[in-house]
Design brief:
The protein has a single domain (about 30-340), classed as Ribonucleotide Reductase, subunit A. Helix 6 packs antiparallel against helix 7 (about 175-200). The protein starts with about 30 loop residues before the first helix and ends with a helix. The model is unreliable at about 350-355 (pLDDT under 50). The longest helix is centred in the N-terminal third of the chain and has 36 residues, at about 85-120. It has about 350 residues and is mostly helical. The protein is globular and about 65 Å long. The chain contains 15 helices and no strands. Helices cover about 70% and strands about 0% of the residues. The chain has helices at about 30-40, 45-50, 75-80, 85-120, 120-150, 160-170, 175-200, 200-230, 235-255, 260-265, 270-280, 280-290, 295-300, 305-315, 325-355.
């Protein structure tokens, strides 16, 4: 039986006119990328062991957060709802959000496999290979959470689908990096961070923290590769990429309106979308999603007038001076802290069991 709340295609084919590139310079490599590759091989983890899948999740409030985190909280539509209908809204909203994470991670899996094929440098191929297994694991954990804990999922959102199409169908290797490693993954990291920091339910909190630990390396990978490459482009080539980024950022901002949820719940969609668009809380939430993207684009050299104007219009220019290395270090440490807490609980439980043995 399908867990999808709406009809969903079983598959999706994209034509990808990529050029496969071999690099015979096996002894050549950038120190930072090789260190990142070494770290990627050492930081692999198994989903069925690192996450406690025995935890029961309450579908009426999967994240264990206050109602103010529901985008339509405070709207006329919300005020008219019964408590049962609000519980359904919380359930569907988290299912929709985690579904987009799952679809995005499959996109990352495919894009990274394409990067292995198309990127010209052997050190980048090394690291991208470690990311392929990371992304497969991420698809696995989000799929398992949706199917076993929420028993509900949503098809891929149209705006995300169009970005995945751009990332996969463009023949230029750097555009796959730019669309996936910088834009889609950068936005996902911010969304994961909100859940990691706010969720009271331990499984969702740990799941997103562990995924973020991997994603911090992935975004660093994109930064390193593109920071070296973009200074070599002509002004026209950089302008083209900046124009793509501006369009993509507006599409990503609009991705989080979740109109599919409101349609499924049979709410007045136009009225709800107008509320979400104008809500100060939602505007702050949507601007927070660009905390990683803005400084990363500045760091890799895509920082012309067009991009700066768009970010000023979105109200996110303040993120330009974010210390990316410090933020990524915090992402890694948060996962380590959760892991340390889990290990301590396991140790205490084992010690208690041993003491109680006759």
């Amino acid at each position: 039986m399908s867990v999808y709340a709406m009809p969903s295609d079983k598959s999706w084919d994209i034509e990808s006119p990529a050029t496969t590139t071999f690099d015979w310079n096996y002894d050549d490599g950038r120190d930072q990328l090789l260190r990142l590759y070494d770290k990627g091989t050492r930081k692999q983890w198994r989903a069925k062991e690192r996450l406690d899948w025995s935890i029961d999740v309450d579908p009426s409030n999967p994240l264990g957060v206050g109602d103010e985190y529901v985008p339509i909280f405070g709207s006329p539509a919300w005020d008219k709802m019964t408590e049962k209908e609000r519980a359904q809204a919380r359930h569907h909203m988290v299912a929709w959000q985690f579904s987009q994470f799952m679809h995005g991670e499959q996109g990352a899996l495919i894009c990274t496999a394409k990067i292995v094929q198309t990127v010209p440098d052997i050190d980048a191929k090394y690291y991208a290979a470690t990311q392929v297994i990371d992304e497969a694991r991420h698809v696995e954990v989000y799929s398992r959470y949706l199917h076993e804990k929420l028993e509900l999922a949503y098809p891929v959102n149209g705006n995300l689908k169009s970005l995945l199409d751009d990332a996969i169908s463009d023949r230029r290797w750097d555009m796959t990096y730019l669309a996936m490693q910088v834009l889609i993954e950068g936005l996902a990291l911010a969304a994961f961070g909100l859940i990691r920091n706010q969720a009271q339910e331990p499984l969702a909190k740990a799941l997103n923290a562990y995924v973020m630990q991997d994603e911090a390396r992935h975004v660093a990978f994109g930064r390193l590769a593109l920071r070296d490459y973009y200074p070599q482009l002509t002004d026209k080539e950089r302008d083209e990429r900046e124009e793509f980024c501006v369009d993509a950022c507006y599409r990503m901002r609009d991705r989080f309106l979740a109109e599919e949820v409101w349609e499924t719940l049979e709410l007045p969609v136009d009225e709800v979308l107008e509320y979400v668009n104008e809500s100060e809380t939602q505007q702050i939430f949507r601007s927070y999603l660009f905390t990683r993207i803005v400084p990363t684009l500045k760091d890799i050299g895509l920082w012309g007038p067009r991009i700066q104007k768009a970010f000023t219009d979105m109200g996110v220019m303040a993120f330009a001076d974010t210390d990316l290395d410090a933020v990524m270090a915090e992402d890694e440490q948060a996962a380590e802290d959760i892991e340390a807490g889990r290990m301590e609980i396991d140790f205490t439980a084992t010690e208690t069991a041993e003491r109680s043995e006759p």
